[in-house]
Design a protein that fits this description.
Blueprint (H helix, E strand, L loop, with lengths): L17 E5 L2 E14 L6 E11 L11 E4 L2 E10 L4 E8 L1
Antiparallel strand pairs: 1-2, 1-4, 2-3, 3-6, 4-5, 5-6
Length: about 100
Amino acid sequence: MPFVEDFSPFLSAAEFATTGLLAGVEVRGIFDNGSALGAVGIAGLATTQPSFTLPTAALPSPVVGSALVLGGQAYTVVAHEPDGTGVSLLLLEKA
């Protein structure tokens, strides 16, 4: 029998989760806008890498290129990284 995880405790809007619209469908996940360092010249380039973590089952197919709106800010999904446990990381760019 396959293992099935209930992600709802991790995606509570009262805790860390954010609700957004992914390709027009309401989804709940965890938004992060961590810093990233690019290798540009000697000094490098500091930037941010917005991402959204959510259950893989909530994703439309295909997800890359889809619009994601979070708190009034529009993003485009540029990469999809499933972790194999039912959770996916979406890498985003501001639209």
